[in-house]
Design brief:
5 helices, Four Helix Bundle (Hemerythrin (Met), subunit A), mainly alpha, globular, 80% helix
């Protein structure tokens, strides 16, 4: 087992925990403003780990030109590690927006997107990678 293979498998443990916490947070019905902020923060962490684990996995598979989250998403989609590449790119854009500003309407929309769209993407990646370990 080479170092790149070991790296994605180690990072997977952190990603798995973050995705599970995101799932737990998404189950809260009628979250208050602090719970929403926490859910958004856990999404940011989960998404960051997701694209980095994609990058690590792709490097272990011989794809060495991955320089950004967008590159990782596109290549992961090309090799069918992930589905719905357009939704992953949307999640990336929303993650970037959530970091730069706090707007209550944007936060409410993001919480809805996390619960209904982005969490299933992350859990699907978690399931696919757990089968590869």
């Amino acid at each position: 087992m080479n170092a790149k293979t070991i790296r994605w498998k180690q990072r997977f443990q952190y990603f798995e925990k973050a995705a599970d916490k995101l799932k737990e947070g998404a189950a809260i019905s009628n979250p208050d403003v602090f719970q929403k902020a926490g859910l958004i923060q856990i999404f940011e962490i989960s998404f960051e780990l997701a694209w980095k684990i994609m990058k690590d996995y792709l490097e272990a598979e011989g794809f060495l030109e991955i320089k950004s989250p967008r590159d990782a998403i596109k290549q992961a989609y090309n090799i069918e590690l992930i589905a719905q590449g357009h939704l992953w790119l949307e999640a990336l854009e929303n993650r970037n927006l959530s970091i730069q500003t706090y707007n209550e309407a944007l936060a409410n929309e993001l919480v809805n997107n996390i619960k209904n769209s982005y969490l299933p993407l992350l859990l699907d990646l978690k399931n696919k990678l757990s089968q590869k370990i």
